[in-house]
Amino acid sequence: MKKLMLKNLQHVITCNDNDEILQNVNILIEGNKIKAISKDIVPDRETEIRNCSNLTAIPGFVNTHHHFYQILFRGIPEVQDKPLYSWLSDSYKFWQHLNEEAVYYSSLLAFTELLRTGCTTTADHHYLFPKDISSKLIDIQFDAATQMGIRFHATRGSMSAGKSKGGLPPDILVQSEKEIIEDSIRVIDKFNDNSEFSMRRVALAPSSQISVTLDLMKESRDLARSKGVMLHTHLGETLDEQKYCLEKYGKRPLEIMEEIGWLGEDVWFAHGIWFNDEEIKKLRNTGISHCPTCNMKLGSGICRTSELLESGVKLSIAVDGSASNDGSNMWEEVRRAYLLNKLKYGSNGMTAYDILKTATRGGAEVLGRKDIGSLETGKAADIVLIDLNEVSYAGSHDPIVSIVNLGNSSMVDTTIVNGKVVVRKGKLVKHDEDKINFMARKISKEMVKKGREDT
């Protein structure tokens, strides 16, 4: 079994139960897990030793909400400076040209950005299945994840209520509920692995209350719980969503979720901005993906992060779709989560450490994982190394503040996933970034051109 020792790390920010920050220690990795963290490790002859005397180790970031395909639709002038529903309506004309090759290269590109910015585990909410192309798009994503070596939670998304049924998306982008449930079963049976250190997990994720029926939400709930997988959807993102639900169902969004059994440890929601005090109490043990950049760009609002944590809600940080964020930079999302929290709560808000722990251990808890999210003996070897000796960190006296607030680059030094080095000196170790870049740009231009021709 391969062994790697990270020798004499300047700092190890563990995010363990005791919130320990260790100095000048070694981490021994054996296979895919952390074997020891100590100053006194004596490696054997078979152990690869890396001098890390100038590096700080943190647990890998855990990104709990994304839409990979959107990475090929960034910065389209026609959809800038619009609120969520207008942005979605105008984006669909481009998104309807998605194909299998686009799903593959958008996944590779998203994984590249995430890994280079310290993310070792990511979820993706793929709900777009255009007619006349393969329905096995989740398979393509898993293939890309395996090639890149990232820990991947695919949330099999769905849209069943198109415009003809009062929903927001065009009918060309929705599937029948029979198709959705059948493929959900197939994807779970083929890919989901609930074992310790699993690299592949599946969740079921009807897109939102404006694009699916409540019957599909209920069927997805029953299927997920019978198969032992989690549930995910958008909720509490905008006031428009509230208005839609009140007009159609006579109830607030969370009230609907509560009535159909969509609360608890096996559920997490993206955004979670527009909850009142009573609703926040009901969310205890349910997960929230806080998406600061997207929420700022689309003008959706500010998540009540501190109050959610105080009420026992599981909180994580996520980049959300690249077309509403314009990036998949997980490290930058951590910084913005901190600043947005300070804007809302001032000196009573979360500390830099609170935010860092939310982005690591918090993400693991939201995804229902106990084997990742902290640096401890027996945990998965998902480790990020950061060089805080670069000039932009000079003068800082706290490594955590440095990581969350300082620096003019978000490319980490090293990313280790499941015991394997996948990024070194800010670059992918085994993959051609230039090819990924070229192909993604080519495919993106072709799809956007088609979208413009449709208008």
Automatic annotation (TrEMBL):
Pfam families: Amidohydro_1. InterPro entries: Amidohydro-rel, Metal-dep_hydrolase_composite, Metal_Hydrolase, MTA/SAH_deaminase. Keywords: Hydrolase, Metal-binding, Zinc. It is an enzyme of class 3 (hydrolase). One of its GO terms (molecular function) is metal ion binding. Residues 57-422 form the Amidohydrolase-related domain. Its EC number is 3.5.4.32. Coiled coil: none annotated. PANTHER family: AMIDOHYDROLASE-RELATED DOMAIN-CONTAINING PROTEIN (PTHR43794:SF11), AMINOHYDROLASE SSNA-RELATED (PTHR43794). This is 8-oxoguanine deaminase. It comes from Gottschalkia purinilytica (Clostridium purinilyticum).
